[in-house]
Every structure is written in C-alpha cells, then in structure tokens.
Design goal:
The complex is a heterodimer of chains A (332) and B (276). By secondary structure, chain A is mostly helical. Chain A has helices at 10-13, 23-66, 84-91, 93-123, 131-143, 146-157, 162-169, 186-211, 215-223, 228-256, 260-265, 268-272, 279-289, 293-319, 324-328, and strands spanning 69-70, 79-80. In chain A, 42% of the residues are buried. Chain B is mostly helical and 276 residues long. Chain B has two domains: 3-56, no CATH class; 66-236, MetI-like (MetI-like fold, Orthogonal Bundle). The chains are: A mainly alpha (332), B mainly alpha (276). At the A-B interface, α1, α2, α5, α6 and α7 of A face α1, α4, α5, α6 and α7 of B. Chain A: It comes from Micromonospora musae.
C-alpha cells in the first residue's frame, strides 16, 4: 500500500531526479500527478456512481416512458396511449381514496406524533435512573420490521381479539369496532398502528436534539426567574426547531410512501375498496399483481412527483437552514 | 437547578417514562408470551397468561418451518448490502472529502439528490429492469438496489467525518511515504470507525426489515427472507394463531438483539443525519 502513490511523497522520489530540476521535467511530474489524481477520483467514485445511477435514477426514467403505454409487461411496449394512464388514475375513485388516505396519514402522523413526542421528550429531558433502558424500550417499535409489527397488530385487532377483550374488561365494550374490516374505521386503525410504530423514533430524535442544548442555557433561564414551563417554551422548543423540522420532513416522506403496514394489516378486500389503500399499495396492486404495467408505472410517476415536489417545497421553505451542510453547502 | 422542581417532577417523570415504555413494548411482550399458549387458550381468553406454558409452538417453528432458511437468506442479503454500502460509500465519500477538483460539489449534490428519491415509487420500473437483466430470483436483485438507495445517506454521514481529520495528518502520512490511498486505509478508516459502524448498522437494519423489494423480486420461496416468511406463514396458517405468534416472535428476535447491541450507533447515526 505504501507505494501506491509515489508522486505524492517527495521523500520517496528525492533519490531519482537530480537536484535543480529543469522546468520541463517539473511540469511533466505535475502532469503525472494530476493524471494520477484523476485516475483515483474516477476509480473511487465510479462504482458508487454506476450503482446509484443504474438503480436509483434510471428506473424513474423508465417509469415515465412505460407510463405512456398500455402494456401488460410482455415484450416491448407498443400500444402508445399518451397521458391516458394518468387521466385514468385521476378518474378512478379508488385512487382518489388512496390520495385521501395518504393525506390522512401525512397530516395525522404530524399532528398526533409531533405533540406526543415533544411533550415526552421535554418531560424526560433529565437524568433519571433507567434512562438508557427507557430509550431502548421506546425505540423497539421502530426497529421491528414493518411486516412484523403489522402482523402483530393484525392479530391483536382481530374481531374478539386481545384489544377487544381488553376494552371490554375496562368497561369500554361500547367502543369495540371491526377495526380492520369497518370501511369507515380502518384508515384510522392504520394511523394508530403507524403512530405506535413511529412515535418512538420522533421521541428519540427529539431527545437527541435536546441533549445538544447546552446546560448553561437552562441554568441561565432559571437564574433569570423563568419557570420550567417558560424555559421549555422560550428556550428549548426554539432550539429544537431544526430537529423538529427534520423529523417532519422524514415523517412526511415516509407517510407518502406508506406501504408495508397497510399491506399486511388490512385485508386485500378492504384495500381494493379504497378504504385503506395508499398510493403505494394501489400501485403494487395494479401494476405488479394485476399486470397493468403501463398504468402502474403512471401511478409510480404520480407518487414520485408528489413526494419529490413535497420534499423540494419543504426543503425550500422550511429546511434550508438546517441541512445547508448536507444538500446545499460545502464542507470546509 | 433548584431542588424543588426535581422533588415534584421525579415521580411524574417515572410515571410518564413507565407509561410510554409500557405502550411501546406491551404488544411485543404479548406476542412473545402468546407464543407459549395454545390456540384454544388464546381463543378462550385473548388477554390471558399461558397456563400451562407450552414450548411446542416455538419448537414447531424452529424444526418444521422454513425459519432457518429464511433467516439465512436475510443474513446473506443484509451482509451483502452492508459490505457494499460501506465500501462504495467510503470510496465516494473519501474523494468528496479529501480531493479538490472541479465539479466536486456538483457530484456531492448529485448524490444527495437521492435523499429526495422515494424508493417505493421506483419499485415497478426497478422490477422490470431487474427482470430484463435476468437478476430476478437472485440475492443481487435485492442487494444491488438496496446498496444504491442507501448510498446517499451513507455519503452524507461519512463525508463530514472524513473531512474532519486534520490536513496535517495527511501531510505527515505523505512525508512518511504513504500515498493518498495508504492514508485512507491506515489512518482515515481507523479514525472514522464510529461513523463506519453507524452507516453499516443503518444499512443492515434497513435491509433486514425490507419487505417491498423482496416481495416483488424474490418469487422463489427458497430465497425468501424473514419478513416474507412471516407474512407467508401468517396467511398460510391463519387458524394457527399460536404458531403465528411464535413465528413472529422468533422473526423479531434477531432485530431486537442486534439493536440492543447497536442502539448507540443507530441513535448516533440519526443524530449525525440530523446535524447533516
């Protein structure tokens, strides 16, 4: 490994060229150095660039192309239909239901998880015995596979299952619903499962953000006579701003793509009626399983455009300052 | 801090911490314990405790189902993804952190753009492409796209780490005869081990839990991963509630164990991602 780049080490080369190089020789060494540098740059980045372009960027390009055809996935697509697939999608009430469900999940996740996570994180932002264990336990739902969590809740929520039994034993039997079959209830059940799965992530993220706030600030606020509540309201929450916005961003993108939990928890019949479908489940149901490849790809493009535009807008207006280092700024 | 707020808030803190922790893990504990009951027991009293405790469900899953095969498939795919992400990510992040050249920031932005690309949306064309490459029903069909979709975050996390190492160290290494690659291998990588572990753990967990991509590209049951196995088992033996609970518990176990050991890295990685 030592000799991989001798041109960089003056000590190693010193023996070869005589003292007092002529200018022409010096420039040729520099040219060799530059060429070598470019070899390294290209050689080291090319594998990553190829894999990234091929499996992240190219497929989306193909999706746009396929979406313009009526195509069952056999042989090359030939039946060009222009934007018909897009028009069809927006005329399908089930797809409109899926859009509505995604909106419910996006807004519901933000409105339910945000306040819970913020309250818990602020109240628990102190040393107490078992804090490490607490962090571990709260994070468990997030680490579980979506499928595992989905199946688990499916079993718990079946008719006359554990949840119903618990509610009855608490004297709340009147609340019992067909959680996974009632078309008006199922999307809210999904929102509940998603909240359970992801609120721990929000709590941990906010706790991590709070641990970056210097102790001196809270002490200074206390000296100035601020109550605990005032300190949280005027010191902690504003300082948490960047963390909160990043969480909102991640939550929003995740909600727009919600698939696994809904796929395994709600039965296909309920999904196909639109009660619990999301854009992603609708896309896989129609594109992959019903073999409507052109149509499915059109849905993929719609999903992509919605997510991408939402991400760009969010970044443009809310996130710019927070991830300057990551997306727009330069290192050093 | 004065004493008074601590005095009243401590019981409240504990009560809240306990409540949140209980809600988080109660369902998981229920599933694990439920695996020790029989299906008739569960049907008669869904919220009860095992009486008597039955080992049969777990034994059945471990000996008669495809659990081990699926766990092995998951492990191979997750390891392949992790190694690929770390190697490709380190190489790219190294260049972006320690070389000065025209177009460097452009290349970085090009990679970070991937953070905005929803992996779910690309799944149909991805399937078609993998089919055309005849990669369907192979480990590569899962590993390669997973590497690709993990690369942006990996590079975003690694680059600041790699560029934080002082220039003087690089110069010192050069004087001692190490080239730039020698510097990467002998000094930079050992120094940035925490960051490497973080991106590795994130990629591993994401791959271990992945469902949508394997669902589409691994039609061959011999290649199924654990998430597919859980889903299949639960839809195949719908009446065997106890068996499903046992299978689900066993499928959760590796992720839970792995997480217990790597919790710091995961949280650290999230923090790193937040800070950019």
């Amino acid at each position: 490994m030592t000799a991989t780049n001798p041109t960089l080490s003056p000590a190693g080369d010193a023996s070869a060229p005589p003292a007092g190089l002529r200018p022409s020789r010096r420039t040729s060494i520099r040219a060799v150095q530059t060429r070598r540098k470019w070899y390294e740059i290209v050689g080291l980045t090319l594998p990553a660039v190829i894999v990234y372009v091929m499996f992240v960027l190219v497929p989306m390009g193909f999706a746009v192309y396929y979406s313009l055809f009526r195509w069952r996935g056999i042989g090359p697509p030939t039946d060009y239909v222009g934007f018909d697939n897009y028009v069809l999608a927006f005329q399908d009430p089930i797809f409109l239901d899926a859009l509505r469900n995604n909106a419910i999940i996006v807004v519901g996740s933000l409105l339910v998880q945000g306040p819970i996570a913020l309250a818990v994180a602020l109240l628990l932002n102190r040393r107490f015995r078992g804090r490490a264990v607490f962090r571990l336990l709260v994070f468990v739902p997030y680490v579980l596979a979506e499928v595992t969590a989905g199946i688990m809740w499916k079993l718990l929520l079946t008719d006359n299952g554990t949840v119903d039994a618990l509610l009855r034993s608490l004297g709340l039997g009147s609340l019992v619903r067909a959680w996974l079959a009632d078309l008006d209830v199922v999307i809210w059940t999904m929102l509940f499962v998603l909240t359970w799965k992801y609120v721990g992530f929000a709590i941990i993220l906010l706790l991590a953000g709070l641990s970056n706030v210097p102790q001196e600030l809270t002490e200074a606020a206390a000296i100035d006579g601020a109550s605990w509540w005032q300190t949280q309201r005027h010191v902690m929450v504003p300082l948490l701003g960047p963390t909160i916005r990043i969480w909102m961003f991640l939550s929003m993108i995740g909600s727009l793509q919600a698939f696994e939990v809904i796929w395994v928890t709600s039965v296909p019949a309920v999904r196909s009626l639109g009660a619990s479908a999301t854009m992603a489940t609708y896309m896989v149901d129609n594109g992959f399983f019903a073999r409507l490849w052109g149509y499915g790809n059109a849905v993929a493009v719609i999903l992509f455009v919605i997510s991408f535009v939402a991400a760009l807008l969010f970044q443009r207006f809310l996130l710019r300052r927070d991830i300057e280092g990551a997306v727009t700024g330069r290192v050093n | 801090m004065t004493r008074r707020p601590v005095a009243w808030s401590t019981p409240l803190t504990y009560a809240l911490a306990l409540a949140v922790a209980a809600v988080s893990i109660a369902p998981v504990v229920y599933v694990i314990i439920g695996g020790f009951r029989t299906t008739p027991q569960i049907a008669a009293d869904p919220a009860g405790l095992p009486d008597p405790w039955v080992w049969d469900n777990y034994a059945r899953v471990l000996t008669q189902s495809d659990f081990w095969k699926q766990a092995l498939n998951s492990a191979v795919i997750a390891l392949g993804t992790t190694v690929g992400v770390v190697v490709l990510g380190v190489c790219a992040a190294f260049v972006l952190a320690r070389y000065t050249f025209r177009g460097r920031e452009g290349l970085y932005t090009f990679f970070t753009l991937g953070l905005l690309f929803p992996s779910g949306a690309a799944i149909l064309p991805l399937y078609l492409m993998l089919r055309d490459l005849t990669l369907i029903n192979s480990y590569y069909a899962v590993i390669l796209p997973q590497i690709a979709f993990s690369l942006p975050l990996t590079i975003v996390i690694l680059r600041p780490f790699l560029s934080a190492v002082p220039r003087e160290l690089e110069d010192a290494a050069a004087i001692d005869g190490a080239g730039r690659l020698g510097f990467l291998w002998r000094i930079l990588l050992p120094l940035s081990r925490p960051a490497l572990v973080t991106v590795g753990v994130l990629a591993f967990v994401a791959s271990w839990n992945a469902f949508l991509l394997p669902l589409l590209v691994l039609g061959d049951a011999d290649l199924h991963t654990l998430p597919l196995g859980v889903q299949n088992f639960s839809s195949q033996y719908t009446s065997d509630t106890a068996g499903i609970l046992a299978f689900t518990s066993l499928a959760m176990l590796p992720a839970l164990l792995f997480f217990t050991f790597a919790e710091k890295q995961i949280v650290g990685g999230l923090q790193g991602a937040v800070k950019g």
